[in-house]
Amino acid sequence: MQESSPKIVSSEDECLIVVDADDNASGFLSKAECHDGDGVLHRAFSVFLFNRHGELLLQQRAASKRLWPLYWSNSCCSHPRQGESIEEAAGRRLHDELNVNAALEFVYKFTYQAAFRDLGSEHELCHVLLGVLDGEARANETEIAAVRYVSADELVRQFDEAPDEFTPWFKQEWQQLTDEFAVTLARYTSPG
Question: Out of 34, 76, 77, 126, which one is annotated catalytic?
Fold first, then answer.
């Protein structure tokens, strides 16, 4: 029996929600257009999933990604679609990318801009969510090259030793979580 190909869950043609600095939608552009040049500010989300041992699930972005291919990042990052809430979009992508479900807690949102060589930029108003992994992650290889778990202490050590192996938003989000939301983060990183 032939195994089916992994599901393709995103493309450069999909429409992203363009927003202003206050997260008010102002229109739609393709993912490619949003990521060209310096980028166009668009709505996004970033999920941090922890297992019952307090370890964070990391994903290595697929080699086919236009921006930051094969870089390590947090559990799941993507964009909501027109008419879709952040929570709905995050649930959809967790299922599509990792074949898992999780109850998610919104923690904060922030804006960042980061260029990747001369290939384009991310310019996102990003909602950061935390959750506990429900089940065993199975990566969709069209989106993810590899997954692994890491403790909070080990993650900090890896950021120090090999910062260029990680996406810029992941490092920024982790720093903000540890600096401003340490009590919330500790609920997830503490085993049990």
Answer: 77
Please indicate, yes or no, whether the overall pTM of this predicted structure exceeds 0.85. Answer: yes
Considering the candidates 97, 124, 143, 173, report the single residue annotated as catalytic.
124
Contact 48, 128 (CB under 8 A): yes
Residue 100, C-beta contacts closer than 8 angstroms, at least 6 positions apart = 49, 94, 133, 134, 135, 136, 137, 138
Told to judge if 173 belongs to the known catalytic residues of this protein, a careful annotator would answer no
* pLDDT value, residue 188: 97
For residue range 136-167, list pLDDT tens digits in order.
Answer: 999 999 999 999 999 999 999 999 999 999 99
Distances (CA, A) of 64 to 125, 130, 166: 24, 27, 16
Extract the tokens encoding 43. Answer: 């709505």
Residue 76 is a catalytic residue:
no
CA distance 174 to 8: 28
- For residue 81, pLDDT over 80 is answered with yes
Domain ranges of the chain: 15-189
Q: For domain 15-189, which architecture applies?
A: Alpha-Beta Complex (3.90)
